[in-house]
Amino acid sequence: CMRMAHEAGVDVVPRGSGTGLTGGAVPLEGGLVISLARMRAMGEVDVANACMWVQPGVLNLDVSTAIAHLGLHYAPDPSSQQACSIGGNVGTNAGGPHCLAYGVTVQHVLGVEMVRPDGQVVVLGGVAPDPPGYDLRGVVVGAEGTVGVVTRVLLRLTPLPPDVRTMLLDFLSVSDASAVVQAIIAAGVIPAALEMMDRNMTLAVEEFVHAGLPTDAAALLLVEVDGSPAEVDTATAVVERVAHEHGVRTVRVAQDEDERALLWKARKTAFGAVARLKPSYYLHDCVVPRTRLVEIMEAIGEITAREGVICLNVFHAGDGNLHPIIAFDRSDPDESARAMRAGDQIVRACVAMGGTLSGEHGIGVEKRDYMPLVFDDDDLEAQACVRRAFDPDGRMNPDKVLPTGTRCGEVGLADTQVPEGTWI
Questions:
Q1: Which pLDDT belongs to residue 414?
Q2: Which residues of 148-179 are buried (b: 16+ CB within 10 A; e: fewer)?
Q3: Do residues 217 and 318 share a domain?
Q4: Are 100 and 191 in contact (CB under 8 A)?
Q5: Using alpha carbons only, how large is the chain's radius of gyration in Å?
Q6: How far apart are CA 420 and CA 399, in angstroms?
């Protein structure tokens, strides 16, 4: 298929489960869309080396479910893990709530099998922890389908922690909650997960999930620590002490696995809860240094208030990976324009505070024209050279990730229709 497309000069767009949020798997001008969603085979688990080969259509959560009886799991856990595919995770270098302690996808992919644009099949990386030569595996992870089509992935598997404790902290101000994030880590504790929700999001989620969340709180922190029982006890004590030093109102500790699962359900169904407010939403994925969380949360509040749009915040606070969700009605041109303006200002505010464009969702087409905000012309050309080394003709997922010119542009609402002449 790839060889035929190459010989015919046809563009190719790889596509997984379709859960991406930046338009990375959507063809812009026709071509061939290769769906990998039905490639769901899993290989045997190599217990000695704690790894296994899987096809790209395997769903993220299905990996951990399949290997739990071995005391193992696959650590990256995007909020969409019940629906997102491993291939898509590789394409965007996906993270998730637990990436604070465990790292993002690239830390958990040992190797990939990939079909190059000319149809040649190559294997990059492998079981060896430090294979010689250039790290071409690392180039593929996060390349968003611009260098080839990944057909198998060698996953690093992680032992399940012996003990886990989940806490819900609530605060009367977003600033206090933001300050606690940095204070916990400064105190020497790296939680497995450290998530934040503001009041708008808490209200939406509680109506949807009924998890007993305090809806009068300005902000909630969901903190999870894991390790040996002694390590968990020590980390819990530090978190509680730091939280009380910064004005926490209550600390709720999950008493059993059911309560823990309920708290995580509240976090992981947050995006679905937004649909009850408005028919559309615009989600961002910028990252700022943890030390700037207080400032950026204030800036987001000011921007969205100025534009008169609803904004709900739920995000990976521990690594500063923001997910402001601007809810709007796409059928209202004025409200849509205000939502787009607010999003544009949020991106620029994050970059101005030393942040970057994406933590885990990828660049796709949505953030492509923002790339010159964080890379100069030489940087962009260096990246383009790497891309051309894999795909000299520019046929793999064209017009994604890198701008066609070094320009800054504003994001607009995309046409979601498949272009005429596209083969799927």
A1: 55
A2: bbbbbbbbbbbeebeebbbbbbbbeebbbbbb
A3: no
A4: yes
A5: 22
A6: 17
The reported pLDDT for the residue numbered 175 is 95
Q: How confident is the model at residue 200 (pLDDT cuts 50, 70, 90)?
A: very high
Q: Which two tokens stand for residue 119?
A: 């149809």
> What's the pLDDT tens digit per position in 76-88?
999 999 999 999 9
Per-residue b or e along 120-146, where b marks 16 or more CB atoms closer than 10 Å to that residue's CB:
eeeebbeeeeeeeeeebbebbbbbbbb
* Per-residue model confidence (pLDDT) at position 422: 59
Domain boundary residue, one of 254, 272, 290: 272
**CA-based end-to-end distance of the chain:** 12
Reported pTM: 0.93
Is 138 inside a domain boundary? yes
Q: Which domain holds residue 81?
A: 2-159
pLDDT given for residue 410 in this prediction: 46
**Total count of domains within the chain:** 3
Number of Cβ within a 10 Å radius of residue 210: 11
Residues 13 and 134 in one domain: yes
